[in-house]
Design a protein that fits this description.
The complex is a heterodimer of chains A (404) and B (263). Chain A is α+β, with helices and mostly antiparallel strands and 404 residues long. Chain A has helices spanning 38-46, 104-114, 119-132, 148-161, 178-193, 220-226, 244-249, 254-260, 310-314, 325-330, 375-380, and strands spanning 3-11, 14-22, 27-31, 53-58, 61-66, 80-81, 89-92, 166-170, 212-217, 229-234, 237-243, 263-271, 274-277, 282-284, 295-300, 305-309, 345-355, 360-364, 370-373, 388-393, 399-402. The radius of gyration of chain A is 26 Å and the shape is elongated. In chain A, 44% of the residues are buried. By secondary structure, chain B is mostly helical. Helix content of chain B is 77%, strand content 0%.
């Protein structure tokens, strides 16, 4: 089932203006910070919210249609919003929202019963689904007697059991602790990979088809594990979308880069091994594929950035290439101004030290580039906020790609 | 019991005494040897049965109209909900006597609706058992609505939305999700509603009158006995005791139902 959705929604100063298309069996990860409009987008697709303008259809079946003239004004064009219960769109949020008065089994059977299935058959099928999420032994428990991770497993079984055309996951791991999140993520991956075929037999009276899936998340891990394709959302717009490796590996701008934990800078190819950045800085790159003179983006992880104290190692007038931090320690101490830095080095002032992904993240004053180093490294080089330092980037860890 | 300023135990005890001491007085003042006779008297039995039947009927009526009304209020926009809630709770702040007069002017022989009923259908409501049920519903309904609406607001709409995405239509959602979720509130509201209907006096007296067998409920029988028309004050006390005991028994029954884990 192919999902096509395009919408405009205004909430005060916030405007959501986005389109998504998801193919049958495909999983799209929608990545963006809180408040970027991801959940609103899902609400429109699920039929819980009518857009000011837009359309949602699944394989040509129109679910929402609000024409240009706007749905709020009477007579301004025909407005269609198929109610949520007739859309065949499953939604799972970060809160499992299992019905507290029903057992795990009855929760899973609920959707099947609502579709008109007889109680005995619904219960049998529900227990197969509980088996698929490894919750069989908890079938008789009430939600209050289950842990958060167990509840989310039951909720996954519950939404999959209705065999929806479209599956919407709204941060399904966000409320879980790291270990449970990882377990549930793996389970979801298995379910999506198997396309729920094990017990998926077409209860809607038509051959079973693979659902189109959207996973909304602000965690790049979800995108890596679950998605075939990634779209990045910022302030109500999709700023980039495409293949997971491309979108995550070659971020279009600083915002997208920050989401995936990379530094990104823009510039022009000067030679096959040097990019001239917009601010005049040069950046040595191992090898640049785009032609000389083209506009490129360069991305590198914070851990590829090396920092050292300017007073000790910056002024290397002898022009020694790639000064490793260890070598810098033994270098002569010279006034910084006496020699310009190498093309791939620049001077900066340390702004903040904060917890990073793998160590301590170091931000620089007036610079978007962040570095990451271990606490031991920072101590060894005596780097603290306010220090003047020289930064360099390992040329082998830089990716240069055509600017989009 | 830590954390309460000791000084506050004094007003708390006073409040408790205010509620309980009158009942104690009633029990002490009772002429116990004559109590059994007063209770099994035909007068008392008839009043008790009438009270239980009308209060039950009023409670059922309140449930049928009160739960939907609470739903409408809970799901309305803030301003409309505020208005509806204020109007719904009006009978709470109004003396029941005033309610009785109002009902009389609406459904009485010369009333707005009553005259039409009389003229077209030959139906006269005042001073019938039906009038008792209407008067009791009038004063008891707000208790049910407030209680159920509170439960609906607490439950929110999140479960209902999830149920809808699972394919449940509105009626299924109401039956299988909304109603079970608010059941504690419904039960609490039902208890209050029934208790209020059972004790109703003012509106009943004015709108339904005090005819033995058809409109003389327990409170009216107690009032009649207390005023010495035919029987002594002792039998008024005996009847009061009976009503108190009935109330306590109902409260206990519903309390035990409410605390069973299965909803």
């Amino acid at each position: 089932m192919t999902l096509d959705a395009t919408m405009q929604v205004s909430r005060g100063s916030f405007t959501l203006d986005a389109s998504v298309t998801v193919a049958p069996g495909e999983t799209l990860a929608l990545l963006g910070p809180n408040g970027s409009g991801k959940s609103t987008l899902l609400a429109v697709i699920a039929g819980l919210l009518a857009p000011e303008r837009g359309a949602v259809s699944v394989d040509g079946r129109v679910l929402t249609e609000v024409p240009q003239s706007g749905g709020r004004r009477p007579g301004g064009g025909r407005m269609t919003v198929v109610p949520a219960h007739r859309r065949r769109i499953g939604l799972l949020g970060q809160d499992p929202l299992l019905f507290p008065h029903l057992s795990a089994l009855e929760n899973v059977a609920f959707g099947l019963r609502s579709l008109g299935m007889r109680a005995a058959e619904a219960r049998e099928r529900a227990s197969e689904w509980l088996d698929a999420v490894e919750m069989t032994e908890f079938a008789a428990r009430k939600p209050a007697e289950l842990s958060g991770g167990q509840q989310q497993r039951v909720a996954i079984a519950r939404v999959l059991a209705t065999e929806p055309d479209v599956l919407l996951f709204d941060e399904p791991m966000a409320a879980l602790d790291v270990q449970n999140a990882s377990l549930v993520r793996t389970l979801l991956r298995e379910c999506l990979a198997a396309r729920v075929s094990a017990v998926h037999t077409g209860i809607h009276g038509r051959p079973p088809t693979a659902p189109a899936t959207i996973v909304v998340t602000h965690d790049v891990v979800d995108a890596l594990v679950l998605a075939d394709r990634v779209a990045i959302m910022d302030a109500g717009r999709i700023i980039d979308s495409g293949d997971v490796a491309r979108v995550l590996g070659e971020p279009v701008n600083q915002f997208a880069a920050a989401l995936v934990g990379l530094n990104v800078l823009h510039g022009v190819v000067e030679t096959s091994q040097l990019a001239r950045l917009a601010d005049g800085r040069g950046l040595a790159v191992d090898s640049i594929e785009p032609a000389v003179g083209t506009e490129v983006s360069v991305a590198f992880p914070p851990s590829a950035v090396t920092l050292r104290r300017e007073s000790r190692g910056a002024a290397r007038a002898d022009g020694a290439a790639t000064a490793a931090p260890g070598a810098a320690d033994s270098a002569r101490v010279e006034p910084a101004a006496s020699a310009p830095p190498l093309p791939h080095e620049w001077q900066a002032t340390v702004d903040l030290l904060e917890p990073g992904l793998k160590g301590i993240r170091v931000t620089l004053v007036g610079d978007t580039v962040a570095a990451e180093a271990s606490a031991a490294d920072l101590l060894a080089h005596d780097i603290a906020p306010g220090d003047r330092i020289v930064a360099s980037v390992d040329p082998t860890q830089i990716t240069a790609y055509l600017r989009r | 019991m830590s954390g309460i300023p000791r000084l506050l135990y004094l007003p708390a005890a006073l409040g408790f005494a205010l509620l309980i001491l009158p009942l104690v007085g009633l029990f002490l003042r009772a002429d116990w040897p004559s109590v059994p006779a007063a209770i099994v008297s035909e007068e008392a039995q008839s009043a008790l049965w009438l009270s239980l039947q009308t209060a039950l009927a009023a409670t059922v009526l309140c449930l049928i109209v009160g739960i939907p009304l609470a739903l409408v209020i809970a799901r309305s926009g803030n301003r409309l909900a505020g208005l509806l809630r204020a109007l719904t709770t009006l009978p709470l702040v109004m003396p029941p006597l005033v309610g009785g007069i109002a009902l009389l002017y609406l459904l009485g022989r010369n009333g707005l609706v009553g005259s039409v009923l009389e003229l077209w259908f030959g139906i006269s409501i005042p001073f019938t058992t039906g009038a008792v049920v209407i008067a009791q519903s009038f004063v008891a309904l707000p208790f049910l609505v407030i209680s159920v609406e509170g439960a609906l607001r607490t439950a929110g709409t999140r479960y209902e939305l999830v149920a809808a995405t699972l394919g449940a239509g509105r009626w299924t959602v109401f039956r299988r999700v909304t109603l079970p979720l608010i059941m504690p509130g419904v039960i609490a509201g039902t208890v209050l509603c029934f208790a209020r209907a059972l004790g109703e006096f003012g509106a009943t007296a004015l709108f339904a009158g005090n005819a033995a067998g058809t409109t003389r409920t327990m409170p009216l029988a107690i009032y009649t006995a207390f005023n010495g028309a035919g029987v002594s004050q002792d039998s008024a006390i005996a009847l009061s005791l009976l009503l108190v005991v009935v109330g306590i028994v109902i409260l206990l029954l519903l309390r035990s139902w409410r605390t069973t884990p299965e909803l």
